[in-house]
Automatic annotation (TrEMBL):
EC number: 5.2.1.8
Record keywords: Isomerase, Rotamase
Family matches, as InterPro entries: PPIase_dom_sf, PPIase_FKBP_dom, PPIase_FKBP_N, PPIase_FKBP_N_sf
Claim: Isomerase is one of the keywords in the record: yes
Family to which the UniProt record says this protein belongs: Belongs to the FKBP-type PPIase family.
Keyword Oxidoreductase belongs to the record: no
Protein name in the entry: Peptidyl-prolyl cis-trans isomerase
Span of the signal peptide: none
One GO process term, biological-process aspect: protein folding
Length: 191
């Protein structure tokens, strides 16, 4: 059903009953199409999905271009050497050491405002040493102090890439993260 959801997110609707009937027929050995007909149908389906995926990527690229043109004009927006732009919403107080345990809360959104996930709403946080986070998050955290908050815009190549993460993240989507440091636990307090 994951393939079905991905194809659906790319504009290819399938009749669920027919889809499941096809799976059942294949399992039971009651194949209704000849190998040639099946091959032709699969090629047509793959072609339609690829065409829709390319259209979504172009749409996302245009959305990012427009968004970033406005975003870059905002006061305090800076660029990081990793290839993302960011704005510190609140610096925080108290330096963070590489050996500290850092609890973060992250909100992940598409540039159109669609929320992909929000740890605050789920009442969750993630606690790891700095080196335990992916390089992108290590970089973002390095701009902050304890209880600081940063918003950063990440191009697709640093997020979900050209494939996206169906059905929530379209192919080629840039992602907006808002990362807040909920707490820092000093290394000496961990022992």
């Amino acid at each position: 059903m994951t393939i079905h959801k991905e194809n659906q997110s790319l504009g290819q609707d399938m009749d669920k009953k027919a889809y499941l009937a096809g799976i059942t027929d294949a399992i039971e050995g009651h194949i209704l199409l000849s190998p040639t007909e099946l091959h032709t149908a699969l090629i047509a389906s793959d072609s339609a999905v690829a065409k829709n995926r390319d259209a979504k990527k172009k749409e996302q690229a245009q959305l990012a271009k427009t968004f970033l043109a406005n975003w870059s004009k905002q006061k305090g927006v800076m660029s990081d050497s990793l290839g993302y732009s960011y704005k510190i919403n609140y610096l925080g107080q108290g330096k963070i050491k590489a050996t500290d345990m850092i609890s973060i809360v992250v909100k992940e959104s598409l540039l159109d405002g669609t929320v992909v996930s929000d740890m605050d709403l789920q009442n969750k946080s993630l606690t790891l040493p700095l080196e335990g986070y992916p390089p992108l998050f290590q970089s973002a955290i390095s701009h902050l102090q304890n209880h600081g908050e940063i918003t950063f815009i990440v191009p697709p190549e640093l997020a979900y890439g050209d494939e996206g993460y169906a059905p929530a993240v379209p192919p080629g989507a840039s992602i907006m993260y808002t990362l807040r440091i909920a707490d820092v636990i000093a290394a000496t307090a961990n022992k």
